[in-house]
Design a protein that fits this description.
Elements: E1 33-37, H1 44-49, E2 54-56, H2 61-64, H3 86-96, E3 100-104, H4 121-135, E4 139-143, H5 151-154, H6 161-178, E5 183-185, H7 202-211, E6 221-224, H8 246-255, E7 263-268, E8 271-272, E9 285-286, H9 288-304, E10 309-314, H10 330-334, H11 340-351
Parallel strand pairs: 1-2, 1-10, 2-3, 3-4, 4-5, 6-7, 7-10, 8-9
Helix pairs in contact: 4-6, 6-7, 7-8, 9-11
Length: 356
């Protein structure tokens, strides 16, 4: 999610340039992952019907490994059936709908420290190994936590890219032992925080991760690309954030000699205009037709103009339909359902404007 001042809050054709690449062409590049984050697994069929090829849903580490070495998804009842658990539920929903999973590590258990900054890389390694071994190839990528430039997500102030690099390395070891083909994605930083509230600016955090040797422990750089209220073609000199912020992150990769590595947008979106007062998020609101157009164009640009990007995941599919998110939350108004944006994205996939 975009940073809040209150802190409540993936075939590759690679380019050595950070900006849009006309050479990529309108046909895009094969294997591009169209992802969406959802909250209700019953909506996985609607994700597939909308043209998405990847889904991301919440799996709390604390819920599936409640004590060290006790992996709920590896336990069976007297008939040999896997015990009910969030990981199996997500994997089953994805498989039933022909989707791959983008899995983000979330909510470390209390026995492991309860916060990312307290984690032992060995515990992260073990958890990721067991998850990916159980998943059997259904997970396209694993993102090692999220927005580690925010104290809220890191768990402490100051945030520490070097310490995160050690945790990332543990996850990488576990992932590659279990599934050498899985893509390990670094935590995408929250966009353009300006260092306010104990945060670390996105580019500064990424430079810190590279300076700490973190590039050895991820296959794709995780980035966020929220549009704010800007047309996706807007120059990245925009303030405070826009879609082409991805070029700033690619520049960091190039400056550190990491040009042969791809990136993946693990979150992006646009707010639907609403009569509800969304406070500091209000500036991001756009009329339904403009919002839909911008989302379609952003995905088109991601696939056809940035050959170093291997996928993009929209936040979110259904937070407005499940009843668990109130309409006073900005998350509700980022939802694709039930809006024109879902219809337009579906049509763009069907027509080939958003190519496979």
């Amino acid at each position: 999610m975009p940073w809040k001042s209150s802190l409540t809050c993936f075939v590759l054709l690679l380019a050595a340039t950070s900006g849009p690449a006309a050479a990529a062409g309108a046909s895009g590049h094969p294997g591009f992952a169209y992802g969406v984050i959802l909250t209700a697994l019953d909506n996985a069929p609607r994700a597939r019907a909308g043209g998405f090829t990847l889904m991301s849903a919440y799996v709390a580490w604390a819920a599936v490994e409640p004590s060290r070495g006790q992996f709920v998804f590896e336990q069976h009842d007297q008939w040999g059936r896997t015990a009910a658990n969030d990981l199996s539920n997500v994997l089953d929903a994805a498989r039933a709908n022909g989707l791959k999973v983008g899995l983000r590590l979330d909510q470390p258990p209390a026995w492991a420290g309860g916060a990312v900054y307290r984690l032992d890389p060995a515990d992260v390694e073990d958890y990721v190994y067991h998850v990916l071994r159980f998943a059997g190839g259904s997970i396209a990528y694993v993102e090692v936590f999220n927005e580690m430039n925010l104290p809220l997500e890191w768990g402490a102030t100051p945030v520490d890219p070097a310490a995160y690099a050690r945790i990332l390395a543990g996850a990488y070891r576990g992932a590659k032992r279990a599934d050498p083909n899985v893509t390990v994605v670094s935590a995408a930083p929250s966009q353009r925080t300006g260092g306010r509230g104990g945060t670390m600016e996105d580019v500064d955090w990424l430079n810190g991760l590279y300076d700490a040797g973190g590039a050895a422990a991820f296959d794709a750089l995780g980035v966020h690309a929220y549009l704010g209220n800007f047309d996706p073609a807007t120059d990245p000199a925009c303030t405070p954030m826009c879609f082409r912020d991805v070029e700033l992150y690619r520049d960091v990769m190039l400056q550190h000699g990491d040009d042969a590595k791809p990136g993946v947008i693990t979150e992006f979106g646009v707010l639907e205009q609403t009569p509800i007062d969304l406070g500091q998020y209000a500036w991001m609101e756009l009329p339904a037709d403009v919002r839909a157009s911008y989302l379609v164009e952003a995905l088109h640009m991601a696939n056809t103009q940035y050959p170093w990007l291997i996928g993009a995941t929209v936040f979110n599919l259904d937070y407005a339909t499940g009843g668990s998110v109130p309409n006073t939350s900005e998350r509700y108004w980022f939802s694709l359902l039930p809006t024109l944006a879902y219809t337009k994205l579906k049509e763009a996939r069907a027509s080939g404007y958003l190519p496979d």
